[in-house]
């Protein structure tokens, strides 16, 4: 018998249980389809405002999180802070710090209940407002 000498994060176990219940209620195939639809929709919205994806090959994109390149003349952290402060929307930044050899990008997550087209619209609208506060010209590509 192996003794586990750490206290498990019980809140994570509750989260897993709730997630499994939601998947069972919705049906796994519908959950996967919803996340795929959300991915394609988010990619289209990002490209329509003139931003670039960090991963260009569509077959390599994940459903659930998308990395968006931060334009050179934009303070990416200010955009993150502005979106959170103004609209209570939180996106992530680059995980690799300030290494000049690492591309700067935002991480936009849409898992679970956030794999929803209306929530993606809210996120993109918040991102657009934050970019415009920095005088970024939205380049609509319809």
From TrEMBL:
<protein>
    <submittedName>
        <fullName>Aminotransferase-like protein</fullName>
    </submittedName>
</protein>
<keyword id="KW-0663">Pyridoxal phosphate</keyword>
<dbReference type="InterPro" id="IPR015424">
    <property type="entry name" value="PyrdxlP-dep_Trfase"/>
</dbReference>
<dbReference type="GO" id="GO:0019265">
    <property type="term" value="P:glycine biosynthetic process, by transamination of glyoxylate"/>
</dbReference>
<dbReference type="InterPro" id="IPR015421">
    <property type="entry name" value="PyrdxlP-dep_Trfase_major"/>
</dbReference>
<keyword id="KW-0808">Transferase</keyword>
<dbReference type="GO" id="GO:0004760">
    <property type="term" value="F:L-serine-pyruvate transaminase activity"/>
</dbReference>
<keyword id="KW-0032">Aminotransferase</keyword>
<dbReference type="GO" id="GO:0008453">
    <property type="term" value="F:alanine-glyoxylate transaminase activity"/>
</dbReference>
<dbReference type="GO" id="GO:0005777">
    <property type="term" value="C:peroxisome"/>
</dbReference>
<dbReference type="InterPro" id="IPR015422">
    <property type="entry name" value="PyrdxlP-dep_Trfase_small"/>
</dbReference>
């Amino acid at each position: 018998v192996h003794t586990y000498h750490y206290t498990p994060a019980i809140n994570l176990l509750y989260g897993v249980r709730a997630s499994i219940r939601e998947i069972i209620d919705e049906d796994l195939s519908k959950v996967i389809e919803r996340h795929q639809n959300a991915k394609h929709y988010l990619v289209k919205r990002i490209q329509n405002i003139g931003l670039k994806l960090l991963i260009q090959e569509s077959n390599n994109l994940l459903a659930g999180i998308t990395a968006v390149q931060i334009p050179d003349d934009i303070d990416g952290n200010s955009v993150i802070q502005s979106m959170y402060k103004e609209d209570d929307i939180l996106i992530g930044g680059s995980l690799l710090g300030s290494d000049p050899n690492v591309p700067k990008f935002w991480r936009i997550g849409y898992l679970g209940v956030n794999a929803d087209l209306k929530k993606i619209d809210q996120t993109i609208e918040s991102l657009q407002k934050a970019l415009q506060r920095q005088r970024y010209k939205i380049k609509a590509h319809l």
